Amino acid sequence: MAEEEVMAEVETVQAVYGDDCKVVGAYPPHFHLHLMPRTADVTSQQFVEATIGIRAGFQRYVLLIPRALMRRGRNIL
User: Fold this and answer.
1) In a 3-state reduction of DSSP, which class is residue 47?
2) What is the CA radius of gyration of the chain?
3) Residue 29, preceding bond cis, omega within 30 degrees?
4) Is the pTM of this model over 0.85?
5) CA spacing 20 to 30 A to 18: which of 3, 9, 25, 40?
């Protein structure tokens, strides 16, 4: 996959997740996603949330699955 295509994928993730996506590196892709239920604007319903880090390897991206780790979690087993 060409670098331009990979960067387009990163831009798509940013468009979908907005401020909840922090790009650490565009190529190879490396970003953090802050995930929470859509009810998170209501403080009394904020039960769970997580920040997930996703990083692809520099070589053979697309052929190998990117690594995903939970960086931070709240009320997640």
Assistant:
1) coil
2) 14
3) no
4) no
5) 3
Q: Which residues are CB-contacts of 30 (< 8 A; sequence separation ≥ 6)?
A: 23, 24, 53, 54, 55, 56
CA angle 64, 67, 71 (to 5 degrees): 175
Which residue in the block uniquely carries the two structure tokens 């995903």? Answer: 68
- Summarised one tens digit per residue, pLDDT across range 42-66 is 666 667 888 999 998 776 666 788 8
H or E stretch at 62: none
Give the separation between CA 19 and CA 34, rounded to whole angstroms: 9
- What is the distance between the alpha carbons of residues 67 and 57, in angstroms, rounded to a whole number? 8
